[in-house]
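Chain entry —
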Amino acid sequence: MNTTQIIIISTVIIIIVILICICDTIYFGMWKLLKYKQNYEVLLENLEIFKYCMDYSNIFFWLSEGTALGCIRDNNIIEYDSDVDVGIWYEDKEKFFKYCLPMLKSYGFKVLRRYPFSIHRKNNYIDVDFTGRNKKCMAAGISRPFQSMRDCELVMDTLEPFQHSHINNKMYYVPSIEYIEKLFGKEWYIPLSKNEHNKQVSSRGI
């Protein structure tokens, strides 16, 4: 195979990947517009099923972003949060797809999008951040539509030491307070109104 053929094949692969990402983005947007209906009880139910499947598969995960904030501050999911956010080490990604995802599907979860990766059940969704060095993370900020996820390094140094916190009498791992402050500011412990919370989430860019 000569250099020209390699370049052509590489270009085709890149175009295919870009098209897949665009289709994912369009599908996700249409799904949110037509089917998504935020339901606190379903978010909690989905999180508990996710925890059960992850624990059964022996895969470490932590709550991230707004879900971590609610767990630390309120010992609960924020009532008007749009989704559940979790983080998994990138090195466990293959194990997740091999063992945990089939189990999640048996409970009614379906893949909603592949990059970033999300699953949904009962019209509510979980964002799964595969976190590692030289990788991209949702937790690192997506401040505008169609903007690429940012480098995980922006948050990785603040993830540990992980802490224990509880939602509905179940223990979850959550990142350090430094992580929470980096994402939500020094006054993270002060609850925001629904409009203020949504504005903060949509405009956040670390």
